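Onboarding guide, step 5: your first structure request.
Type a short instruction followed by the sequence, for example:

Predict the 3D structure of this protein.
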Amino acid sequence: MDCRVSPANLKNLSEIIVFGDSNVDSGAESEYSLFNLTGGAIPGSPNVGGRSCNGPVVVEYAADQLDAKLVNFGVGGARTSATNLVYDIVNIWPEVQFSGVLSQLKWFAETLGKKKKADKKALYIYWAGSNDIFLPALVDLQEKIDEALENIETALTRLTDMGAKYILVATRSVRPDYSGEDNINGVIFNAQLRLRVQQLNEELKSEIQIFEAFDWITDMTYNPDMYGFVETTARCDQNVDCLNDPNVSDTYITWDAAHKTTRVHEIMAEALVIQALHMKGNKGKCSVKHLK
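The system replies with structure tokens like these:
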């Protein structure tokens, strides 16, 4: 399959509408961000522009590549439910408490006004679940995953009912310690997420696909030369040269304990755009090799 971006396909996409957590929170660029909900307090330095990153995140790059309007409801710390992990940790800002994805969907519904219908030509991105399983005791893991999957099903059903036609659901991203409990929990969650999304794609009227964030980052980690990376697990936010020199930071995959560098986001955006442009009436997928 030809995975090149076609100008004809670009005309079919009106905007990108985003729901999720810090992986897609565009900081100061979005009125709904954690940064703005906390009056600019979180995330602080060395994060850039109120993001949990050293630059733009994946949905910003994707919108630029598609020359599409970005409507971003993503909030750092968001769970798949109505609530936010950050509020549980630092319960200073009441606005943050109910900023999980189900709350974000309410915000979105409010923007639709009387028409109550979502844009059928938009691409909808759902990127959440990590904060639901943030280092739970193993005895609680499956319960937390079950709750998250139910919330995701609720969200995707609501989006479909509102008129959304094309939805990408991201897997949980990789943690630097592949053998650590946090990453293993993510692997377990991702396996069940893939199955649930496949079921929903068959049951709902929307075209719903998985965006393999985990697999893309894993490929970058095990084949760093193909992408220009040097440091695969070292944290950029703990290295002075990485913080001060973009030429250095572009060789790092890991930004902090849970997030990736803006260069990783840029590469993921290229993959996301290619997948999105081949959703409409085309069930084929573009493999990793197309971007190498």
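Each response can be followed by summary notes, for example: The CA atoms of residues 159 and 273 lie 20 Å apart.
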